[in-house]
Amino acid sequence: MNKVHTSARAAGQSNYYFADKLREIRQRVAQGRDVINLGVGSPDLAPGDFVGEAIGQDMPADGAFSYQPYRGVSGLSAAVVQYMQRHFDVTLTEEGVLPLMGSKEGCGFLSLAHLDPGDGALVPDPGYPTYAAATRMAGGVALPYALRPETGYHPEVDVLDKQLAQALDTGCEVRILWLNYPHMPTGASPDQSRLKPVLQWAQQHGILVVNDNPYSRVLNSAAPFSLLSLKEAEGTAIELHSLSKSHRLAGGRVGFALGAPHLLAPLFRVSTQFASGSWRPMQSAAIAAMSQGEADIQRVNGIYGQRKRIVLELLERLGCDVRADQTGLFVWARAPHGTDGDQLSDAVLDQCDVFVTPGSIFGSEGIDFVRVSLCTPEARIEEARLRIASAFAQSHE
Fold first, then answer.
1. Does residue 199 contact residue 237 with C-beta atoms inside 8 Å?
2. pLDDT at 15
3. Structural domains in the chain plus CATH codes
4. In what order do the strands lie in the sheet with 97-100?
5. Is residue 296 within a helix (H) or strand (E), and if so which, with residue range?
6. Other Cβ atoms closer than 10 A to 155
7. Is the model's pLDDT at 306 over the cut of 80?
8. Cα separation of 241 and 223, whole Å?
9. Which of 150, 156, 209, 256 is most exposed by smallest CB count within 10 Å?
């Protein structure tokens, strides 16, 4: 029998961590164990009623199940322009908006659009694993840059300079710098005074900056932030937005790439080869969400805030060190002295049937940390807290 060939890019890529971990959790549940999953950031709360209403109104209309325009239905880009102006003080043209089926798709397509084999992309450590995976799948080289508490989890220009020089010495041209503010997994808020020099550095070296920005409307104490609001980003940066977290449309797969039209053009050329546009009623729902969803966002942030208070108590019981000023949909915590995030995650799962994400999946700088999601009902988080308080009581007496 002939052996079917597997490409090097597929053979060299491991499964996404949560794909395997969720299978393990399902196996535990099948064995009769009541596992509380505090790991995955998939919003459990339903979107606002206006979302379902928009879908219901559009679904019976002619053409609802046809292929849709590559740049979105009429009114979608205009709604994004208005949304960004209203909440982020960013002025865009409709040509500066490219709809995507979620921002994760954008990570892959941007890598294909801007990386030739052997080119480098600077990726945050800790950071979303997809940045590095998308780089490798495009034939590029992922170059992690360390994010540390003492710099507010922001990149340092002198460190980036050294990495650029090292890459060039090996013949690797650096093409992309990935940012993610508000930052996941650390919950760091964007610091303009630290980001402006980074943008200037990238412009000087002809490096495209991509800010992945899905958490800007979740538990942020300051006004929503967009990198495109900084003049230093002009002609240098693309920003990815998603309605998955802010408006709880994760399964709807609605996202956007924003920036100067000439920067979006390569992404458009790639995306049209793979995607044909999302379902029209979902695009109508996205328009409704952006225009009608403000009160809904504030209501849900109140729920997340209450959940976060219980999570902080849970982490305190585990002996973790937690920064108080975190934003977004997760809580990032340093494991107790003498243990690391993997050990703590395994212990909590084995002893309490509670899963928290080990920080190591986000890079080497995350080894000593765990991440806890707020996407679980309050009663279940409280149950997890009680289990942990019981199982870990002796170590804190």
1. yes
2. 65
3. 9-46+295-391 (3.90.1150.10), 49-292 (3.40.640.10)
4. 97-100, 255-259, 237-242, 208-212, 174-179, 120-125, 141-146
5. helix 294-317
6. 23
7. yes
8. 16
9. 150
Question: In this structure, are residues 200 and 226 in contact, taking their beta carbons and an 8 Å threshold?
Answer: no
Give the pLDDT confidence of 87-144 residue by residue, as tens digits. Answer: 999 999 999 999 998 888 999 999 999 999 999 999 999 999 999 999 999 999 999 9
Per-residue pLDDT band at 1 (split at 50, 70, 90): low
Closest CA to 17 of 45, 43, 41, 44: 41
pLDDT digits (tens, 9 = 90+) for 210-234: 999 999 999 998 899 999 999 999 9
CA dist., res. 309 & res. 224, Å (int): 22
CA angle 211, 214, 217 (to 5 degrees): 120
Beta bridge partners of 208: 176
Collapse the DSSP code of 255 into the 3-class scheme (helix H, G, I; strand E, B; otherwise coil) and give the result. Answer: strand
Residues 285-298: tens digit of each pLDDT: 999 999 988 899 99
In angstroms, the Cα distances linking 289 to 34, 58, 273, 363 are: 35, 14, 28, 34
Is 263:113 a contact under the CB 8 Å cutoff?
A: no
pLDDT at 14: 66
